[in-house]
Amino acid sequence: MEEAEKGNDGGCEVGTINSEKDQALRSYVHLGVPSSTLQESWSWIPKIIKKRVCTAFVEDSFSNGALCQCGGVREMHSSIATGDCFGAAIVSQWDSAQHSSEYPTDAFGELEFAGAGRRHSHFLRLSCHTPPQIVYTLMTAHWGIPAPNLVVSVVGGEGSEVLKPWVREVLRQGLVRAAQSTGAWILTGGLKEGVGRCLGEAVRDHGTAASSVSQNKIIAVGVAPWGLVHNRQQLVNPQAFLLVDDGSVGRRGGEEGFRANFEDYISHQRTGIWGSGSIEIPVLCMLISGEASMLERVDLSLRKATPWLVLKGSGPAADLICELLDELSVMPKNPKKPAGREVPEGPNMEQREHVRERIRDSFPAEKDLEKLVDRALSIFQNKDLITVFNEGYEGADDFDTVLLKALVRASKRMSSDASENIEELKLAVAWNRVDIAKSELFNGDIQWRYEDLEDSMTDALVNNKPQFVRLFTENGLNILDYLTNRRLESLYQSLSDSSLAYTLLQRKLTERQGVAVNLGTTFTPDANTPLKSPISPLSNPCAARELSLYEVSRVLWDLLGDVCQPFYFGPLGLDYGSSTRKALKQVNKLLLGACSYKDQHCLSPWASLFIWAVLQNRSEMAIFFWEMAGESVLSALSGCKILRELSKMEKETDIKLAMKELAQRFENLAHDVFSECYKSNETRSYSLLIRKSHVWVGGTCLQMATAADARLFFSHDVTALPDLVGDMESSTEVWKLVLTFFFPPLIYSNLISFREQETDEEKTEELFHTRDSVDGGDGTVFSLADILHTNEDTEEYNALRNKSNGSSPSSQKRPFVFHRWRQFWFSPVTSFLGNVLMYFLFLFLFAYILLVDFKPPPKGPNTAEYVLYFWVFTLVCEEIRQSFNVGTTTVFQRIRLYIQDIWNKCDLTAILLFCLGLLCRMFPWSYRFGRSMMCLDYMVFTLRLIHIFAIHKQLGPKIIIVGKMVKDIFFFLFFLGVWLMAYGVANQALIYSYDSRPDWIFRRVFYRPYMHIYGQVPLNEIDADKRDNVTCTMNVTLINEGMEPCPQIEENWLVLILLSIYLLVTNILLLNLLIAMFSYTFSKVQEHSDIHWKFQRYNLIVEYHSRPCLAPPFIILSHLHLFIKRNIRRVPSVKMTHFVLEIRGRKASQLNTWESIQKENLLSIQNKKQRESDTERLKRTSCKVDSVLKQMVEIRDHDRRLRMLESEVEYCSSVLSWMADSLSQSNLIKPPRPPPTRRESVLSSPSSPRC
C-alpha cells in the first residue's frame, strides 16, 4: 500500500481542496461547477457535513515513533496521547471516536473522468458518524440522483485479488443490466481495485453504449475510505462518491459502519415509483470472495434480517459459507446450548468441530478461530436469508431473477401472511417477473386476499403487465368488486401524455371546462389541465377539472359513430337523446355535486377494461380482456373499429402500423369465433348477427362490421344474407324476373315460385323455441331472411299475440292477392332489377337529348328534356332520403357519413354538374358551357353504372382492382410530370429561342411531350434534317403578332439526345413501373377476391333492402307515401329495425352462454395448435434440457455428500473396531460370549434390508 499523504486539520474555503494530500487530489479533480457557484448553491454543506481528523498521536510501535496508529505522521497531530491527564495509564490502542475530532468538510464537488463520455460524478468527504438521512437527502434532492427501487450492496473482492472470469461476467452482464432494468443502486467500495474496478468499468461501458435515458438508470455509489484515496487514479467512475473519513490514513474498514447504517436507513424508506409509494426500498447484500473479517459483516447484517446473495466459487469467505450451508444441513442438530458458552441455538459439538476444521482450511493464518466459528454458526442459523448463486447452472442473463428470488425468500422467512409479502409482490410486478411470482408467491403457501391484490392490480394495469392481471384474477381478485367508476376514471387519468387517446380526452375535457366557464362555474378552466390530477376523495370543484367518464363517452362516440348509443350515460344520469350542450351542463352540475356515481361498480367491467386497453393499443392486455368479456364477436369487431379509426388519426408510423395489425387480429378473431358458432348452430348464428347488445349500448354485429370495414368477417357465407331474392326461391332465373317485371299479372302464375306462407306467430314462436337449448342440437334451422321477415311484420305478430288463444291465426293473414303482390314488389331483387332497368332507360334518354334534341334557347328545352329534369329531381330526392336515413345522429354527422361513401360522392358530383349545366343552358350566352357540363355529367352518370355490377362475382373484384389502380396512376403521374416538365421546358428553350404565345408554350411544354409517349413525335420540328420549308420569322415583333417562330439549328444534337433519354425513361422505365404496380395490385386483390365481392354484395343488398320498391322516376310516389306515413300518420319505420333483433332475459343469457362456449372452444383449439408448433416444442425441449442439467448438478452434489458420509461411516467403523479390539484384549470386561462374525449371506445379498 502506498504511503498516505498528509491531511488538513482545519476548515478551508468551500469548493476547494487543501493540504498536501488534497493537493495531490486537486491535480486530478475537476470541479464541474465554478467555485463561485458552489459557494452560492452548496455553501450549506460544510455547516452540516463534517470530516474527521486525528488530533491525538498514538504511537505505532512498528514505525519507531514516526507514525500514529491512524497512519498519519507526527506533524499532523496537535497533541500526543501517551497517557491520560494523570499519567496513570498509557494509551496503547487508537480509537477513532476518542482520538479524532470533527471539522467542517472541505472536499466536495464533481469529478470529471476523461475518456468516453467525460462523465461527471459527485463526491463528498464525510465523517463516519454522519447521519445517513442527511446523505440520502443530499444525493436524491440536491445531486439529482433518482430514488432507488432496489439497493444491491456488493462487498468482498477487495485489494489486489484477481476476479475469476465468470465473476466478471456476472457483474458486467448480470448485475449491471439488472440494475439498469430495475432502477437499482449499486453500492461498491469505489476504489479502482478488485470488484470496485470491474463494476466501474462495466457501468462506464454500459453508459457509453446506452442512450442518455437508460444511462441514468445505472446508479453506482462508491463508499470508499477517505484515508485510502491518494489521487483520482485510485477511483472508478460511479454516479457518486461517499468518501468516509474516520480520521485514519491508509487503513481499511473505516467506512463499514457508515455503510451498514446507510443501507439500513435506505431499507426503511419508501419509494413512489410504483404508484402510491407504499413499498419500502429492498436492500440486498452481495458477497464476492472475501476474507475472514467478512464473516462478521455478514453475521451482523443477517441479524438485521438483510438478505444476502453469495456467489459460490468466487473466493474464500463466499465458498466457506456455501459449503457450511450444504454440509451442516445434513448433519444432526442438538437443540441444547453448550454450557458456559453463549452461542446460537442448535449446533452441537460435532458441528462446531466441523466448522472449525473448515475455517482452519479456508483461513489458516487466523488465530481467533472460536470467534469465527461463532460467526459462522450464527450465519447458518439465518440460512433462509441467504441465496446461493451457482455458476454451474445459473447464467448471468438470469441475474435479475436471482435477485428477486433472494428478496422473496427473505420475506417469506419473516411471515407466510400475505400482508408481509405485499412489497415483494409489488417488486415482482415492477420487474414484470410473473414466473417468480407464480413459483414463490402464488404456489399455495400464501393465502392472498382481495385487499392484498388491489394495489398490485392497479400497478399491473397502469404499467401494462397483462400476465400479472391474469395471475391476480386467477388468485382471488374479483373484477366486479375491483372496478368502480372512480377507479376506471383513475385508469384513464393514468394515460401516457404522448398517447393519442390522451390528446383526444384532453380536447373533450377542455371543451367541457369551456362550457363551464360560459355558465359561470366557480372553477377556472385551464387548457393544459392534466388528466393525471390527484383524485378527490370527496366531491369539490376540483372534481370538475378532472377527467370523467363523460369525456371517455364523447371520444368513443366520435370513434364508433352511430353504431351504438353513447357509453356511460346511464351512470352519469344523462338522456341518450339530449344535445351535447345540455349534456355538458348536466355533467358539470353533477361533478360539482355529490358524484355518487363514482362509487358505483361498473356493470360491464371486462368490456370497460377492454375499451381502455384498446384505446392505448395494448395488444396483449386487450386480447386478455377480450377473452374475459362477453359477446366475443361484437367485442372483437368493436376493437377493430376503434383501432382503425385511431390509426387514421395517428401520426407515428410505427404506432399506426401496430394499430392496423391489432385491428386485423381482432377481425380474425371475430371471423373465427363466428365460424365456430355457425358450425355449432346456424339459427343461433343468424340471431347473433343482428342481436342488439346491451353491453355495447345497442350495437349489432352487422352494423359494427360494416362500420369497421371488416371485409374478412363478411367473407363468411352467412353474413352475405339477407338473401337478395326475399320471399322468392333463390333458384329463380333472371329472365323470369324481367318478364314478370314488365308483365305483373305473371306474379299470380306458377312462373315464379314463392316460399310457403306461414304465420308470423308460428314462425316467431318456433324461432324462439329453437333458441331454448344451449347446445343447439334440436329445432328447425331458420335463415336470416326468416328472422328479418319476422321483424318486418312485428306489428302483425304483436296483434296476434294479444289475441285470445281461440282466435284463428289464419283470419289475420293478408289476402292472397295483396300478399303475393307484396312478396314480389317488396323483394330486394325486384327493387334492384327495377333500378337497373330504369337507370339504363335514364342513360338512354340523357344520351338522346345530348345527341339529338338539346336545342338552345328559346327553342329549348323541350318535353323530353323536362322529363329528364324531373327524373334527376327524383334522384335528388332519393339521395336526400339516403343521407337522412343513416341513423339518429345530427344533421352534420349524417352529411359527413353520407359523403364518406365513394359512390355517394359520385352521385353528388353528378347532381352538382347537372345543376350547373341546367343553369347555364337556360341562357344563350352560356348555352355552350352548359352543354359541355351536361356532356361531362353524362360521363359521371355512366360511370355510376359500375356500382351496379359490384354484385357480380367476377366483375365485383375487378371494380375494386380498377379503383386501386387509379390510385396507382396518381403516383405514376407524379413521376411522369417531373420528367414532362424537365424535358418539355428544355426542349422548348432549345428549339425556339423566343415564343411569347402562352397557348403554344403550354402545348409544346406539356402536351407534345406527353404525346411522345404514344409515338407521336414531330420529327419535322425536332430533327433539323427533316424540317420542311415553312414560313417562319425571327422578328420578335412579328412573333408577338402571331407569326410562327423559326426553330434553332445549333443545338439540334442536344435536342435529339434529350428526346432519346426522355423516351427511354418514360416508355421503358416508367411504363414498366406502372405495369408492375398494376400487377401487384391485381394479384393482391385477386387473392382475396371472394372477400371483396361478398363485402360489396352485402352492402348492395342492404342498400336495396332499405330502398323503396319503386325505381326513379316513379320513386316519387314512394317518397310521398313515406312522407305521409312518417310525418302525418306518425307510423315508425319498420325497415329501420330489420337488422336489429331485441332479445332479453333468459334467451339473451342463453345466447351469451352459447357464444362464450364457442369462444372457449376456439381458444382451446388455438392453444393446442400453438403447443404443437415447432417453436413451442423447441421451448419445451430446452426447458427439459435445462432441468436435466440442473438435476445432474444436484446429483453430483448428492454424490459428493454420499462420499463424505461414506468416509465418516468408514471412520466410525474403524473406531468401533479399534475399541472392540482394545476391550477384548483388556481384563476390564469379561466377554459373556464370543464376538459376533459377519455372515456371508448378508455380504453376498445386496437386496437384504439389513447391513
Overall mean pLDDT:
78
Shape: elongated
What structural category arises from helix and sheet content?
Answer: mainly alpha
Q: Note poorly predicted spans.
A: 1-40, 85-89, 211-216, 273-277, 335-344, 522-529, 532-540, 758-782, 787-812, 1240-1251
Work out the radius of gyration. Answer: 45 Å
Distance between the termini: 61 Å
Classify the helix fraction into a percent range. 55-70%
Main sheet attributes: strand count, strand direction, barrel closure: 9 strands, mixed
Which percent band covers the strand fraction?
5-15%
Task: State the helix count.
Answer: 52
Total strand segments: 15
> Largest sheet, order of strands side by side?
5-6-10-9-8-7-13-14-15
InterPro entries: Ion_trans_dom (IPR005821), TRPM (IPR050927), TRPM-like (IPR057366), TRPM_SLOG (IPR041491)
Domain Ion transport: 839-1089
Biased composition (Basic and acidic residues): 339-355
Protein name: Transient receptor potential cation channel subfamily M member 4
What does this structure look like?
The protein has 1251 residues and is mostly helical. The protein contains 52 helices and 15 strands. The strands form four sheets. It has a nine-stranded mixed sheet, sandwiched between helices. Strands 1-4 form a two-stranded antiparallel sheet. The longest helix has 52 residues, at 1174-1225. The chain is elongated, with a radius of gyration of 45 Å. The N terminus and C terminus are likely disordered.
